[in-house]
Every structure is written in C-alpha cells, then in structure tokens.
Specification:
Number of strands: 14
Number of helices: 13
Order of helices and strands: HEHEHHHHHEHHEHEEEEHEEHEEEEH
Strand order of the largest sheet: 2-3-1-4-9
Largest sheet: 5 strands, parallel
Bound molecules: zinc ion
Structural class: alpha/beta
Strand content: 15-25%
Radius of gyration: 22 Å
Distance between the termini: 36 Å
C-alpha cells in the first residue's frame, strides 16, 4: 500500500564533477560545502537568533536519528538538539531505580501531571525495561518532555518518537506552546523509505558488544571484515580502537527483519499519511529511494548506497570485498536505488531553507 507520493529531490549540481567518498567525515564536509554551501550559511545565520522545532516521522529504521544528527553536525552541533523520546523514557526508567531521583521525579509529577489515569497507575509504564513509548500515557509523556526541555539551554529541536500514534498528532499541533517555543516555526519532516530497505537494514545489522556501535554487513561494513571458517560466515570487526578488534554481533530478532515489526510499520505508515494532509504546518519530504532508470538525472553515482558481498580466499587467508550499487524493489515493485545519508541531508538542508523562508 502506497499512501502518499514523495517527489524525487535533485542533489546533482550542475558543474560539480568531483567525486566524494561520503564515508569519510573530511570528504563529507567538502561535499556539503559544494552541494549546499549557501543554504548551510543561511541556516547558521538564522540559528544565531532563532530556533525551530521539527518532528521526525518515518518508519522504524528510516534513519531519523542519522539524518538529524548529521544535519546538526554540519550546521552547528551547539545550536541543534536531537531529542529522542525513546531515550528519554529509558533514562527516566533508570532514574526511578534511584531512591533520591525517584522522589524528585514523583514530586515534580505531583505538581505538573494532569491526566486520565493516576500517577500510581502511570508510573509502572516507565519502569519496564525496553518499554514501548506507546504504553506511556500521552499526558504523562508531555509533562516529562516539558521537564526535560526546561532543563536545557534553548536550542533548535529535532523530536524523534513523537507523535507516535494518531491521537498524539493533535497534541503535536500545540506542543511548541507547551514547551515554551511559541514563537518558533514548527515543521514536520516526513521520511519515505521502502520496506525492503528497512528489512535489509535490520537483517544485516551488526552491533559491537562493547561500544554498541551499529553497522551493517551488507550495506555499511567496518574497515575490517573477517571470516569464521567454522561457522562459514563473514563478520565485522569494530572500528573503534578502544574495542580492540571486537567482533560485531547480531541482535536477537533482527534476522526476522520487518516481519518482527509489522504492526509498528503499519502505524508509522498511517502517521505519515495523516500528517501529510495536515494544514498550516510546513512539511519537508525526504525520499530515500529513487528508480534506477531516473537516478542519473537526479543524483551522482557516489550518492547511491552500495552493497557489499564477500569471498573467502583460503590460499591468501584473506577476505575479498565486492562492492556494487545496491538494487532492490520499492513498495510499488519498481527497481530502485537507496540514497546515502549525506545525500538525504543535502535534501533536508535545502528544504529547511525553503520552509523557514530564508
Ligand atoms: Zn566497538
């Protein structure tokens, strides 16, 4: 089911022929300068005196965190904050384990929380490990967000994880008043990513058991790939020198891919559809995929996500790495490429300039 059509964004710039390796931070900086230099300046200038509040909406694993963090890194990390509701709930879960912090939190809520269920009933939802934000009543969630924002210096916000269901959309329309951002523009950032991309991102994900860094065996390997002869499988070695060559591992449930998150994907899709038709709030539309036949017109080839496969060369004791553009079918069955995060962020930067009227 395809609900809304996202336009393809052109990141190709006439006259820019230089190629970039977008995995390298240094290269990335030059890339952004060349592709969106004036727009970056405009946003920096704007953020000197102003802020904004942007809601990130997209399927699970759509890249919400990646894009907004990269945006902040490029524009100005001190002026922009990625606010994950899921992380906040997990932090509060930990706070509740500490006697003193628990007391403080509860007395804050006694003064500030208003809702349909009592605090005694609502608090257990925060205590469960890996709790689903969904189960935390919205009224409680909002008091907690308000407290969290009030603690910080004012910055432009990317909100990740709210609204999370259809009821919360109406709350989000008044959210900026609630957190004291009344004068700031609010924006919905909708991310469209085909299910097959989410699926592969999950299925091949690998995580460092020490530093928790997440990579992908097929789509985003580390510098060193090894081969386990006994198990006959390739593995990634963490790049972080502190981890001393730790072998990255699969997370339980990931091998199921989108089968494991079917309900959640349906809800995310509904949320996008609903917010797409909202009046009065500007929208940024980020489209992750591009039909193979259209790619050349819109993007440069190094902006396309490659896929990696491996071959074990026993006589050399080496792993041979094979790289090629990754092709897959999108939700409508069209053979497509997926864009690298940097390219998505160029699109985000340029559209932000538009919606902020800079
Ligand atoms: Zn590590």
């Amino acid at each position: 089911m395809k609900s809304v059509q996202f336009p393809i964004f052109k990141t190709k710039v006439e006259g820019v022929t230089r190629r970039f390796n977008l995995i390298e931070p240094e290269e990335r900086r030059t890339y952004f300068e060349l592709k969106a230099g004036p727009e970056i300046q405009k946003i920096r200038e704007y953020l000197k005196e102003n802020s904004f509040i942007a809601y990130l909406l997209g399927k699970k694993n759509a890249g919400k965190g990646t894009y907004s963090k990269m945006f902040a890194e490029i524009i100005d990390p001190d002026k922009i904050f990625h606010f994950s509701i899921g992380d906040m709930v997990r932090e509060i879960g930990k706070e509740l384990e500490d006697k003193q912090l628990r007391k403080e939190l509860i007395s804050f809520l006694e003064e500030n929380y208003r809702g349909w269920i009592s605090l005694e009933e609502a608090i257990p939802a925060l205590e469960k490990r890996d709790t689903k934000t969904l189960t935390v009543p919205t009224e409680l969630l909002l008091s907690l967000v308000k407290r969290e924002i009030a603690r910080r210096e004012k910055r432009a916000l990317f909100i990740d994880g709210f609204p999370r269901n259809l009821d919360q959309i109406s709350f989000s329309l008044f959210f900026r008043d609630l957190i004291g951002y009344r004068e700031d523009p609010d924006i919905f950032i909708l991310i469209d990513v085909p299910e097959s991309v989410v699926d592969e991102r999950m299925k091949h994900r690998r995580i460092c058991p020490i530093c928790q860094t997440s990579r992908n065996l097929k789509l985003f390997p580390t510098k060193k790939v090894g081969y386990d002869q006994k198990r006959r499988e390739f593995y990634l070695t963490c790049n972080n020198s502190n981890c001393q060559g730790a072998r990255m591992i699969k997370k339980e449930g990931d091998e199921l891919g989108i089968k494991a998150i079917g309900e959640r994907l349906k809800m995310d899709e509904k949320l996008i559809k609903q917010t797409f038709s909202l009046y009065g709030i500007p929208k940024v539309l980020l489209r992750n995929s591009i039909p193979v036949t259209e790619a050349e017109k819109y993007v440069d080839d190094y902006e396309i996500t490659p896929e990696y496969s491996y071959e074990w060369l026993p006589e050399k004791g080496q792993v041979k790495i094979i790289e090629k553009p990754w092709e897959f079918y999108d939700d409508e069955g069209i053979l497509s490429f997926s864009l690298l995060p940097s390219s998505m962020v160029v699109s985000l930067i340029k559209q932000m300039v538009e919606v902020l009227n800079l």
